[in-house]
Fold:
Amino acid sequence: MWRTILLYGVSFAILIFLLKLIEYRFLVRDLSLEFYLGLVALLFTAVGVWTGKKITSKKFVTPPATTAPRKHNEGQVAKIGISKREYEVLLLMAKGLSNQEIADQLHVSLNTIKTHTSNLFLKLEVKRRTQAIQKAKDLELFG
Amino acid sequence: MWRTILLYGVSFAILIFLLKLIEYRFLVRDLSLEFYLGLVALLFTAVGVWTGKKITSKKFVTPPATTAPRKHNEGQVAKIGISKREYEVLLLMAKGLSNQEIADQLHVSLNTIKTHTSNLFLKLEVKRRTQAIQKAKDLELFG
DNA sequence: TGGCCGCCCATACTTAAGGGTGATTTAATG
DNA sequence: CATTAAATCACCCTTAAGTATGGGCGGCCA
Structure:
């Protein structure tokens, strides 16, 4: 968390630095102020979009919903003791997503996903994600 | 779609206009260029965040939508250019074995398996073994 | 209300996986 | 015979995955 904040801070600092750099290099060449401003605006818009994507889409706006194609696996899932969240992770894992991608999709941290996967491996009695996928298929945990 | 793009274009135009407005109002007051730039940067960062939010909240990670052509294994395997050995590795990989375990089972070294898997990933156009398994299933490379 | 559980997050560490490059051997093939 | 492809293996380096541990928070329940 703190690391993330720090990272953003540093990133912005670097950006400001680059800004000044560009400023000197371009201004001495008599480039128009308008052009320079446009550049800055564009650059920071891009940065804004990026950070916006990273930050604002967190926590809320989570309507994955679905919950359609299931019925008989619920019992199996419950029997093994896999929680709802863990099941979500399992599904995404089976789709070939990396932990990081799963974390992004569920709007949680990488560490959280690692915890979930670890617990999953314990409950499925496997050691690797590929085995987990196989085991889940064998147990017909997927619709 | 086009309407959205147009909308954003117009919005940005307006913003640029406001920019110029602010520019004149502040520059005549002898405000420092740095301050002005900072303001612009901040403003457009905010705009970026906003647009980012709008974009990400709507878009929702399109499903693979690949739906590649599908026949059956032998032909498919040859078509993609997967060699016999690579196919063996792929099968074992799909069973959830680690590279080391595959190496042991085929009586070759770990590095060899790594080479095979790398080539497989290239040919299957994936980045991870879990994806490779998924892709192989989609393409019905398995009996 | 105290305890359990699910969920989230973090730090620190170890191991597995993957990328890039280069090299050798063998078998097939024009 | 020279070329080509498959298969084998090695070294280095980066990133992802997995393990261990601990803390915080909110809901549920006996």
About this structure: Residues 98-100, 114, 117-118, 121, 127-129 of chain B lie near DNA strand C (CB under 10 Å from a C1').
